[in-house]
Amino acid sequence: MKNMLVRTIAGLLLLLAFASPTVAQIVPERNLGYERTDSVQLALPDSLVAAPVLIDSVQLTWLRTPPTMRDLVADRISCLETDVPHLFNNTVMSFVNYFTINNRAYTQRILERENLYFPLFEKYLEKYNLPKDLKYLAVVESALVPQARSRVGAVGLWQFMGPTANDFRLVRNDYIDERMNPEKSTEAACRFLRDLYRMFGDWELALSAYNYGSGNIMKAIRRAGGQRNFWAIYPYLPKETRNYVPTFTAALYTLKYAREHGLHSDSLHYLYPEPTDTLIISGRSLDLRKFSAQFGLDSTEISRHNPEIRKPYLPETIRNYRLTIPTCIRPEMAAFDRNALLDFCKVTVPPPALLTPRIPSLEGVTPAQTLLAATEPKPELQVRYRRVRYSVRRGENMASVAEHYNVTPAQLARWNNLRRGHTLVPKQQLVVFVPLEQPTPTSTAIAVKKVVVPTKLSLPTGKEAVATRSKTARESVVALIEAEKDSDAVEQTAPVPAKSATVARVVKESKASAAPIEAAASLPATTTDSALIDYSVRRGDNLAKLARAHGMTAAQLMSLNHLRSENLSIGQKLVFYTAEEEETSTEPLVQPSNVNAVAATISLVTKTTTKPVTPPLPKVHLVQPGDTLYNISRRYHGVTVEQLRKLNHLKSDEVKPGQKLVLGQS
User: Fold this and answer.
1) Radius of gyration of the chain, Cα coordinates, nearest whole angstrom
2) How distant is the alpha carbon of residue 154 from its chain centre?
3) How far apart (Å, rounded) are the C-alpha atoms in residues 166 and 183?
4) Which residues does 351 contact at the CB level (< 8 Å), separation at least 6?
5) What is the CATH number of domain 385-435?
6) What class has domain 64-256?
């Protein structure tokens, strides 16, 4: 019994010994007269030093704000007579400090634009019987910038997403985005807010659904146990939506009491609504830069009144578009014909260049890079190739065939899948790709006065009407000169009417009488007088090389020298035709000093009628790259394809560059 009593007393003494230090370390909380702003001291058991616990930035801002300022802001917000949320707490106070202290420049930019957009917002809020203070929601969404765009793709003053904009019939295409139209987007936002308020019956929840989506808010309500209250579902919302309603309350307070916080300044550039007119554009394109320059407006003036236009022009496919224009140009617009003005401001696009044909990918041939259609023509000409089949003759090898077509033996081997050193067999068929020479166009041109495209449409007066007629006359003269230049570039001898032939001859005479600018490139001369010369075959010569050097074919050279084979021996005598080149007179192109004088000369000569003069027919034609019998017969008057075949003993219509064709009997 005594032992049990001793054990019980010992246990009580030990319990008192362990409990006494803990009671001694508890420090009663003292009222210091102020609140700590950096950390909170907590007394822990068995610890001599209290551990600091950090607090968030919102609470830190709340603690650093003087109590008098907090009380003043709280009183002002509670006195606001509005149906929109205006609950005051530490989160609202932190955003009030942001708008009024930390980022005053941002708030001042908003104050510059509030007089421009708030009357428009109030108009549509009153139309749909909504609280007028909902206009501050656009401040939270876009800071009153019509072209604002969020990182997730929301656009406009009210930050509509694409699907939501489609629900409210806002047009979105490559040229127009009505989410940036202040009037249409404001009306759509009012309808959207009205629908959300009808769904939730509370403006705090309606604003949260505007930011987070009505479906997500319904999920948060279910997670909160069905409580339809913003602060009840607050823990189940993302951070952005949690701050959405407090930010709205802070913006509402800041803009209502901006003058008390000293945010207004004389240095701010306040914007105000301007009187505007409407111009209906339908079925025609409109260059906005040209339209602005016509009336002396700034290049961004039309875009500022129509922020929904995404490009500096409107396409022809647009229908019934209402273009907003300032009323200051109304008197000047009334002086113009509407159709003439819109035709002048039409979008002018240069015609696209011709598509260059694609070259097939050929083995052993480096294909030219495929060119796309461009607005400006490329100066380089694309190389074209012609596929030729060649039948190997006795005694020929890879080197001689390659030299015949001016290619390398390696290329010839690749084109025909032959190994190096392969021996050719008579009558073996080879494929050769021969590049075609592109005819270089002559660079001769007549220097005429450049027609200046007007940048501004002038009012129609009597003097300008006379000037317009004189300009039309000058352009007709220039057109005649250009047409005559084109006819000189390509030799054509088809019969023309007497009047046009006379005009062309007069233009030539007027050119020849003036100072020359540059000589026209002369065409290869043809001749009828030929003489034979002797030639001794040297080492390295072959029939194809000699024929090409003298402008003949191998068959013509063999026929001229009565050869039975193409084999030649050193010292063998051959005869060739040598032609005396005729001197061709170059006709200088001149710059007409007085276009009116040329026009007067033409008008006088056209009154007289003369017979068409047919140029003399040359006896021999030197075939150029790209020539065919049909083109040659069309070039010379009175020559047909059948005549060319008979005169030159041709069995087919194929002709080769450098070949000489007889055109007629001497």
Assistant:
1) 47
2) 24
3) 16
4) none
5) 3.10.350.10
6) mainly alpha
- Structural tokens at position 584: 């061709």
* Secondary structure (3-state) at 532: strand
3-state class of 576 per DSSP?
A: strand
Q: Would you say 256 and 267 are in contact if contact means Cβ atoms under 8 Å apart?
A: no
Helix (H, G, I), strand (E, B), or coil: what is residue 309?
strand
Determine how many CB atoms are found less than 10 A away from the CB of residue 246. Answer: 21
| Structural contact between residues 390 and 566, judged by C-beta atoms closer than 8 angstroms | no
Cα 89 to its chain centre, rounded Å, is: 51
CATH of 616-666, one of 3.40.50.2000, 3.30.565.10, 3.40.605.10, 3.10.350.10: 3.10.350.10
Q: Is the pTM of this model over 0.70?
A: no
Q: What tens digit of pLDDT does each residue of 165-200 get?
A: 999 999 999 999 999 999 999 999 999 999 999 999
pLDDT tens per residue, range 361-398? 666 655 554 444 444 455 555 667 778 888 888 888 88
d(CA 568, CA 559): 14
Could you give phi then psi for residue 163, rounded to 5 degrees? -60, -40
Task: Give the residue among 232, 195, 238, 187 at the shortest CA–CA distance from 214.
Answer: 195
Q: What is the DSSP code string of 487-526?
A: HHHS-------HHHHHHHHHHHHHHHHS---BPPPPPPP-
Distance CA 543, CA 557 (A): 8
Distance CA 41, CA 3 (A): 47
* 223, two tokens: 């997670």
Question: Of 3.10.350.10, 3.90.79.10, 3.40.50.2300, 3.40.50.720, which CATH number belongs to 530-579?
Answer: 3.10.350.10
Domains in the chain: boundaries? 2-25+36-51, 64-256, 276-344, 385-435, 530-579, 616-666
In the numeric block, the tokens 């602005």 are attached to 292
Taking the C-alpha atoms of residue 76 and residue 255, their distance in angstroms, rounded to an integer, is: 12
Q: Which residues 6+ apart lie within 8 Å of 309 measured at CB?
A: 175, 176, 288, 302, 303
Listed residue (386, 402, 415, 655) closest to 545, CA to CA:
402
Are 427 and 394 in contact, with CB atoms under 8 Å apart?
A: no
Same fold, 64-256 and 530-579: no
Torsion angle of the four alpha carbons 276, 281, 286, 289, in this order, in degrees rounded to the nearest 10: 10
Percent of all residues in the chain with a pLDDT value above 70, rounded to a whole number? 66
DSSP codes, 456-486: SPPPP-HHHHHHHHHHHHHHHHHHHHHHHHH
Q: Beta 573-579 vs 530-536: how paired, if at all?
A: antiparallel
